[in-house]
């Protein structure tokens, strides 16, 4: 019999204890939890205001992880669920995961030979854009996403935008001088046309901030400057769009087999 005095017996007490550690990652919504479980995240606690509906979603959209989700999800009153999260999700599902050790991510980024590029966001400003990029990178099988500057790539808003796919690729914040090995291809309006360049699988693909572009340090570190095709008088693309275009180009010119 479970001891009711044990915090592990009560998902809400366990949730609050994990939050107090400062290392828990909020998985906001069914899809974030689904992806995290699918890619091997350590998820100590998951709650929902409607367990039957959540498991029906699993039956329809993620039967491969239906069993683990059924074992994880604890039903709590809706008011309790809403008190645990900053912004209730339409699926009324939330979970806390353990952030992967920094050492493991750094090892994944440095390991060679690399079969897929690393994406670098140089001093990004928009949390939602960063999350969208991580989701893209995971979809293309990129080795990882690195941010420079002050933005925390594990901020809850970034994780929400990434739909739990932080656990499908290596995500870390580094200084420019700490970037992983490999030729650096930096996106810049003055660069060579991307369409004329073959991107190798070990490329480091660097994108400047939404307002300022590439920093002086990143520009100096770049081996090649590349430009995206763009109609005259159009100022720029959204950051996530730029990353998507570049990764798609890599997928048609490099794209090694998954490791």
From TrEMBL:
Residues 118-248 form the tRNA/rRNA methyltransferase SpoU type domain. The keyword Transferase applies. The keyword Transferase applies. Gene3D superfamilies: 3.40.1280.10. It comes from the Bacteria. InterPro entries: Alpha/beta_knot_MTases, rRNA_Methyltransferase, SpoU_MeTrfase, tRNA_m1G_MTases_N. GO terms for molecular function: methyltransferase activity. Pfam families: SpoU_methylase. Keywords: Methyltransferase, Transferase. One of its GO terms (biological process) is methylation. PANTHER family: RRNA METHYLTRANSFERASE 3, RRNA METHYLTRANSFERASE 3, MITOCHONDRIAL. This is TrmH family RNA methyltransferase. It comes from Streptomyces galbus.
